[in-house]
Amino acid sequence: MAAAGRRYYPIFLDVAARRVAVIGGGRVAERKVRQLLACGARVTVISPALTPRLRAWRRRKKIFWKSRGYRRGDLDRMWLVVAATDQSPVNRTVSIEAARRKVWVNVVDDPARSSAIAPAWFRRGPLVVAFSTGGASPALARQLRLKLSREIGRDYAAYVAFLARVRHEVHRRVRDAATRQKLMRRLVRANLLPLLKRGKLGELRRQIARLTSSSPARGGGG
Fold it and tell me: How sure is the predictor about 69, in pLDDT bands with cuts at 50, 70 and 90?
C-alpha cells in the first residue's frame, strides 16, 4: 500500500557498526540482511527459521540470531529495524514499538507503517544510485534501476575514485571554495571517463593540468 500524499526526504544512512534488527528469516529478509552487511551493520535476525544462506551467515558469525518470533523489547538498543515477515499483525506490532522507541523502521511492502522506506539501488564503488516511487510502484523503481545500471557501468567505480583523488588535490592547492567548485564542475563536464577506460593516463593528466591551470584566481593556494 502506497503512503499517499507523503513527501519523503531522501537520505543515505551510515549503518556501519550500528545495531539493526531484521524481523523474519525468509528470502526478503535475506536480501535485506545482505545489503545491511555490505554496509557494515551489526545485524540481529529474529525468526524461528532461516534460509540456508542466513544460516550460513550465522555459522560464520556474520549475524546474530534469535531463534523465535518477535517479542516486545526486541528493539532495545536497536538503531534501525526491518520488518520482513509475511504476517501483517507482527509487522504492525513492530511498527508501533519502533515509533514508541523512536527507532527507524522499514516495514517491507507497507510504507504507510514505515518511518523509512528502502529504494531500489545499485552501487559502482563510491557511487550509489537510488530510485524510489514513494511506495507507489516498487516494480517501476526496479525497472529504472536495471535500465540505469546498464548505462552506468562498472567503469564508473574507477572514475569516481579518480575524481575523489583529483578533488583532494584541488582542495590542497586551492583555498577559495567557489573556485574549487568551478574547477570540479569543469572536470566533470569534460567527461574524462573515456580516457580512463582506454588507459590513456598521460593524456588524462595533461587534460587535468589544462583544465585546472586555465582557471582564474587560485585563492592563494600554494
Answer: very high
Is the pLDDT score of 114 beyond 90? yes
Beta strand 120-124 with 127-131 is antiparallel
- Neighbouring-strand partners of residue 66: 46
Comparing C-alpha atoms, which of 187, 152, 195 is closest to residue 167?
A: 187
Q: What is the CA radius of gyration of the chain?
A: 22
- pLDDT at position 220 over 50: no
In the chain the beta strands, taken as DSSP E runs, fall at 19-23, 42-46, 64-66, 80-83, 104-107, 120-124, 127-131
What is the rounded distance in angstroms from the CA atom of residue 27 to the CA atom of residue 119? 17
Look at residue 201 and tell me whether its pLDDT is greater than 80: no
- Which H helix or E strand runs over 205? helix 201-213
What pLDDT does 221 receive?
39
User: What do you get for the CA distance between the two ends of the chain, in Å?
Assistant: 57
Q: Which has the closest alpha carbon to 50: 73, 75, 69, 67?
A: 67
13 confidence band (pLDDT: 50, 70, 90): very high
**Beta carbons of 141 and 122 less than 8 angstroms apart:** no
Residue found by looking up cell 534501476 in the block = 145
How many other β-carbons are positioned within 10 Å of the β-carbon of residue 198?
10
Question: Are 192 and 204 a contacting pair, CB within 8 Å?
Answer: yes
Q: Within 10 Å of residue 85's Cβ, how many Cβ atoms?
A: 22
Query: Residues 83, 90: contact at Cβ < 8 Å?
Result: yes
Q: How far is CA 135 from the centre of its chain?
A: 17
H or E element at residue 12: none
